[in-house]
Amino acid sequence: MHIQLHDEITLKEIKTVFSHFYPYLKLEFYNCPHKLFEACCENDVLPDEVQLKNVKPEHTNGIIDIQPTEIVADLEQEFQQRFGIPAQVLWLEHGEWKQTTGMDSFSLKEVNEFSQNDSDEYIVGNYEEGFEEA
What pTM was computed for the model? Predict the structure, then answer.
């Protein structure tokens, strides 16, 4: 997958393209960078409607190439170093979006599959609990 990053693109547009290819993952962008295996503060989340030029006025336009075999930490680092956008990949755990802090060394494909499996188990579990209560 390729995403053309330029001044006018919004963070929502970047996130939408990413989620199209990785439906069980989500990208989030922040005001402050983070270190490997470190979480970002939820108060630092950037609004979806912000354009790239407003995140960091002096940045590099270009194409980001995201492959399933890419390591989560490498993708987050590329957004930060090349484009000046602190990013965090999130995955679904028991129906809630969680930062991938403990999964920074896994590939996007692996984390997407973990998230899918967890989501499927969570949905089935909730479905079965509904029958037990009836």
Answer: 0.83
Q: How would DSSP label each residue in 73-102?
A: HHHHHHHHHHH---EEEEEEETTEEEE-GG
The tokens for 2 are 């390729």
User: Residue 71 has which token pair?
Assistant: 């390591």
Q: Which amino acid is at 58?
A: E
pLDDT digits (tens, 9 = 90+) for 44-86: 999 999 999 888 777 778 999 999 999 999 999 999 988 889 9
- Three-state SS string across 12-54, please? HHHHHHHHHHCCCEEEEEECCCCCCCCCCCHHHECCCCCEHHH
Q: Which amino acid is at 53?
A: K
Token pair for 114: 């973990």
Instruction: Look up the domain containing 60 and give its range.
Output: 2-133
**How many independent structural domains does the chain possess?**
1
